[in-house]
Automatic annotation (TrEMBL):
Keyword Cytoplasm: yes
Reaction(s) catalysed (UniProt annotation): UDP-N-acetyl-alpha-D-muramate + NADP(+) = UDP-N-acetyl-3-O-(1-carboxyvinyl)-alpha-D-glucosamine + NADPH + H(+)
Keywords: Cell cycle, Cell division, Cell shape, Cell wall biogenesis/degradation, Cytoplasm, FAD, Flavoprotein, NADP, Oxidoreductase, Peptidoglycan synthesis
Active site: R177, S227 (proton donor), E297
Full protein name: UDP-N-acetylenolpyruvoylglucosamine reductase
Subcellular location: Cytoplasm
Length: 306
C-alpha cells in the first residue's frame, strides 16, 4: 500500500487536510485507553464524504473500519490496517414535533438530554449509555429495560458500495444487540427516534434515578469497555462471573471489576492484549464451572501486534 498515494486520493474527497491523519494512535479514541495505530484516520464532515470514502475503499480493495465513540470496543494492539472513519464531526441533533433526528456521531446520552429539554419521553433508558448514536443503531444498545429498537423508527445509512439509503423500521430488523446495519455492514449516518410528549419533571426524575443506579453499580472511576459479555439465555453474565470467584482477577493492568463482575477495568496501564487474555480466562472458567458459553458483547477489532 502506497500511503502517500492513498493520502492524496483521500484529500481529493474531504474538504480539509486536517481531516486525514496517518498512523494515528487509537488509544485516544477508546474508552479502555488501549489500541494500536490506524493507517489512515479520516473524519468526514458530510454524508457525501462518507459515501465517497466507502466507495473509494471498495474500489481500491482497502479495508474500512467505522469507529464511533469507542465505548464498547477493544482495538487490538497491532492497530487497524486501511481506513478508519471516525464520525465524531457528524453530531447534530434536531427536533421535529415528537421526533428527534440525531447524526451518528452524537452521544446517545446527549440525545436523551435533548429529549428531556423538549419534554419528550422514551429515551430515558439511554441517559447512561456512553456510546454514539451510530453505535446504538448498530448494536441496538439498551439498558435498564429499554433498548434503541423501542423508539427508533428509521435510519439513514451508507451501504457497502457507498450509496446513501434510508431504512424504515421494518428494514432495520433489530434484535438483541444486533440490527440490519451490523448484519449487512452498513454505516449509520443518522437515526430518527419517535417519542411521546411527557412531563419534564417526571422524565428528569427517572433519568436521575437511572444515573444513580449506574453510579452505584458500575465502576465508572476506571477506563472500561462497558459490559463485556452478552446475557446468556437464562443467566446473567455478571452473576456467573461473580459466582466463579473471578472478581478482582487481573491480567497485566486489567482486572475483573470488584464493583460489577460484568465489567473489566483498566486499573494500571493495561493493554488490549491484557483485555483479551482476561476475557478468555473468564470464558474458560465459567464454561468449566457452569457449562455456559459467554459470548462477547464488546466488539473486538484490529490486528495482533507483530
Amino acid at each position: 500500500m502506497d500511503k502517500k498515494a492513498v493520502c492524496s486520493d483521500l484529500l481529493d474527497i474531504v474538504a480539509k487536510e486536517d481531516q486525514i491523519k496517518i498512523d494515528e494512535p487509537l488509544s485516544a479514541y477508546t474508552f479502555t485507553h488501549t489500541g494500536g495505530k490506524a493507517d489512515f484516520f479520516v473524519t468526514p464532515r458530510t454524508y457525501e464524504e462518507v459515501g465517497a470514502i466507502v466507495a473509494y475503499s471498495r474500489q481500491n480493495e482497502l479495508p474500512l473500519t467505522i469507529l464511533g465513540r469507542g465505548s464498547n470496543l477493544i482495538v487490538r494492539d497491532g492497530g487497524i490496517r486501511g481506513i478508519v472513519i471516525h464520525c465524531g464531526c457528524l453530531d447534530q441533533i434536531r427536533c421535529e414535533g415528537n421526533r428527534i433526528i440525531a447524526q451518528s456521531g452524537a452521544s446517545i446520552i446527549d440525545v436523551s438530554y435533548f429529549a428531556l429539554k423538549h419534554g419528550l419521553t422514551g429515551l430515558e433508558f439511554a441517559c447512561g449509555i456512553p456510546g454514539s448514536v451510530g453505535g446504538a443503531l448498530y448494536m441496538n444498545a439498551g439498558a435498564y429495560g429499554g433498548e434503541t429498537a423501542d423508539v427508533l423508527c428509521s435510519a439513514v445509512v451508507v451501504n457497502t458500495e457507498g450509496t446513501i439509503i434510508k431504512l424504515s423500521e421494518d428494514d432495520l430488523n433489530m434484535g438483541y444487540r444486533r440490527s440490519a446495519i451490523s448484519q449487512k455492514g452498513y454505516l449509520a449516518l443518522e437515526g430518527t427516534f419517535a417519542l411521546k410528549k411527557g412531563d419534564c419533571r417526571e422524565i428528569k426524575s427517572e433519568m436521575e434515578r437511572l444515573t444513580k443506579l449506574r453510579e452505584l453499580k458500575q465502576p465508572l472511576e476506571y477506563p472500561s469497555c462497558g459490559s463485556v459479555f452478552k446475557r446468556p439465555p437464562g443467566y446473567f453474565a455478571g452473576k456467573l462471573i461473580q459466582d466463579s470467584g473471578l472478581q478482582g482477577t487481573r491480567v497485566g493492568g486489567v482486572e475483573v471489576s470488584t464493583k460489577h463482575a460484568g465489567f473489566m477495568v483498566n486499573v494500571d496501564h493495561g493493554t488490549a492484549s491484557d483485555y483479551l487474555k482476561l476475557i478468555r480466562r473468564v470464558q474458560e472458567t465459567v464454561k468449566k464451572k457452569f457449562n455456559v458459553d459467554l459470548e462477547t458483547e464488546v466488539k473486538i477489532i484490529g490486528e495482533e501486534p507483530k
